[in-house]
What we know:
Elements: H1 3-35, H2 39-55, H3 58-78, H4 85-129, E1 131-138, E2 142-146, H5 148-154, H6 164-170, H7 176-187, E3 193-200, E4 206-219, E5 222-231, H8 233-260, H9 262-288, H10 294-322, E6 330-333, H11 334-351, E7 355-360, E8 365-369, H12 371-388, E9 398-406, E10 409-416, H13 444-454, E11 458-464, E12 468-476, E13 479-480
Parallel strand pairs: 7-9
Antiparallel strand pairs: 1-2, 1-5, 3-4, 4-5, 6-8, 8-13, 9-10, 10-12, 11-12
Helix pairs in contact: 1-2, 2-3, 2-4, 3-4, 9-10, 9-11, 11-12, 12-13
The structure holds adenosine-5'-diphosphate.
Amino acid sequence: MSITQRCKQLLLSDALAFLAAIAAGSMIFITNSYLDLDIAPTLFYITLVFMSANIFSVPVFLTVALSCIAMLSASFVVEEGYRDHRLIAGFVRCLIALTTITLLALRSKRATDRLRRKEALFLGAQKLSHTGSIGFTFDDKETVWWSDETTRIFEYPMDVTPTTTMIRARTHPEDLSIVESVFEQAARKENLIEVEHRLLMPDGRIKHVQMIANPLSNQGGRLEYVGALMDVTASRQSEEALFHSQAKLAHVTRVTSMGELAASIAHEINQPLAAVITSGESCKRWINRPEPNLEEARRSLDRIIQNSTRASKVIACIRALSRQSDVQRKAEVFDEIVSDSLTLMQHDTANHQVRPNVHLGAAGAYVKGDRVQLQQVIINLIINACQAMTNVHDRARTLRIHTSVQDHEVVLEVADTGTGIAEDILPSLFDPFFTTKHNGLGMGLSICRSIIEFHGGRIWVSSTVGVGTQFLFAIPLTALRHDQ
Ligand code: ADP
């Protein structure tokens, strides 16, 4: 039942109470006129005081109440009640009763007014924050009630009585299981119910709502849940927009690093192509002999196939990195993502005279994620590590790349023996546009962090100036399969 309906019901019951009070007051007054009882007019005044407390503002109510006290006193004086000590005692009793009732009515009126103000504020806040109230019971009979704001969120007419069927009807078909789980949790009488799901409006619009409900009372086995339902569509839409702009930015920086890697990429493709040509020529020679050596020719063909496969793999990696595709979350073998990134970086590390120390120790570990985005993170960390070692001449330039499974996460470590990072700039490292390079953009690590966080993981760094830097990231492990 909506709050408006409840208010209408309350008004109706107030009106009935008012009529009843009038009737009772009149009867007492009539009785008093005939039987000359001192208490009856007081009851009539009390009724009047109660009525005016309900209807009027505080000053008007006080005027009415004081007038009643004055009239009671006036009739006592006019009827010369002070001559009879029994009437004096009766008058004092009535005066005390009327004054006490006036004070009590005043107190309750103030409390009611405060409550009404709070309710108005509450309803206003609900409207502004797009948060409605919702309550339900799920025992022998399913009952639902909600506030006007919830009616607005569900976009139902204000005067309809809510039902679970109405909730289901507005729920996005793909999220029906979430809503069913709420009903199941309520039936199991669970303590806190918290969900986020989508609504599908009749005109095709999608809304995102968040609901949190707590059990209110458990009397005689009946458990009533009361909670709040918030329309979070706007914030979800801005998150999505932010995510898309981040993805675009990530694409731009990816393409930029592709430019930086052009020489390595050319080399990576050139090498297998040269091997293809050499093997093709020797194959021809083996066949053109007066007595063709088919075994050697077959070996040459195998080398051709091997090298062409390698070249096409490199091209596939580059195409994937430079393509602006929507983010995809698929089950991927983590070590494969790392080794594919290393394939692209081989020449670059060699150019920087960096000795890679690779240990892929997460065999069979699957992560759910976007392969291209994760490759971007790894490539960025490797580029930074190589650049940090450019000016190192007094020790070996070692790039340590280790993967491992720790608890329920896969961890990648990219460590270098470069210049290291001063302690005071460590906290700013992941800030957008933070760079210490004269031609740096300062977006690499910031994008790395948002990609890792998007994958539900975390990235961190430790460094010692003059010794080297260690970047690590961990993302949730989705499966560990040793059969493949
Ligand atoms: P950019 O490379 O364009 O400067 P990044 O966000 O990738 O942007 O890096 C930000 C800064 O972090 C770099 O300018 C550099 O000072 C520091 N940094 C990143 N990786 C390393 C590293 N491996 N060793 C030393 N400093 C690093």
